[in-house]
Design goal:
The chain is mainly alpha-helical. It is built from ten helices and no strands. The relative contact order is 0.12.
């Protein structure tokens, strides 16, 4: 009887999560294959790595999807029609700020920080899931502002995309500040200040 092949010495899902943390911390381009192999545990060899994941690009896609299915869910409330528009925007900002500054994983947001600094067409394809996630969040802010306009809470003449960009830009900036060590207490106060801009534009009544 032919001898069975040597079993893998690592848990695949755990390996994807470890790769996610590496890409989250360092970005795609700065994370080398040697770092990935060392970080995945079990002393995985190059042939085993390619057998398990195919390529660095393929592993990045799996790691990005792992992030999108977990940590990135903090902004899904933007699409919840059961929440008032203002409530949804504030909740998305606070949940994201809390996640980005909590211990147990790299600071900041992988969607913002895991991208390539000077993407080629090939790298743009690798980063597509993160690009799409940013676009979805941006659209979520626009949708909330549009809902508020439709409900008569914000002025009918307001440009939804422009006003939504204020909140989207703030969210993107959180990633850099969290990476620089700014903590949630500062973000908490800043979000309260930002939401005053919404209140200042609210239609009276």
């Amino acid at each position: 009887m032919a001898q069975m092949g040597r079993p893998r010495t690592f848990d695949r899902q755990q390996a994807i999560e470890q790769a996610m943390f590496l890409f989250w911390q360092q970005g795609y381009e700065s994370t080398s294959l040697n770092q990935l192999k060392a970080g995945l545990g079990g002393g995985i060899s190059a042939p085993s790595f390619y057998a398990a994941f195919g390529s660095k690009e393929a592993l990045f896609r799996e790691a990005a999807q792992c992030y999108l299915d977990t940590y990135a869910r903090v902004t899904e409330c933007l699409w919840d029609d059961g929440l008032a528009p203002r409530q949804a925007v504030e909740l998305a900002l606070r949940q994201s700020a809390s996640m980005q500054s909590e211990p147990g994983h790299p600071p900041g947001c992988m969607v913002a920080l895991g991208c390539m600094s000077a993407p080629t067409a090939e790298h743009a394809a690798v980063a597509a899931p993160l690009t799409q996630s940013r676009a979805r969040t941006r659209a979520g802010f626009v949708r909330c502002v549009g809902r508020a306009i439709a409900r008569g809470e914000l002025p009918a003449e307001m440009d939804a995309a422009s006003f939504a960009a204020v909140f989207d830009a703030f969210l993107s900036g959180l990633s850099i500040q969290a990476r620089d060590g700014i903590g949630y207490p500062v973000f908490d106060v800043a979000i309260s200040q930002l939401m005053r801009l919404w209140d200042a534009n609210r239609v009276p009544g």
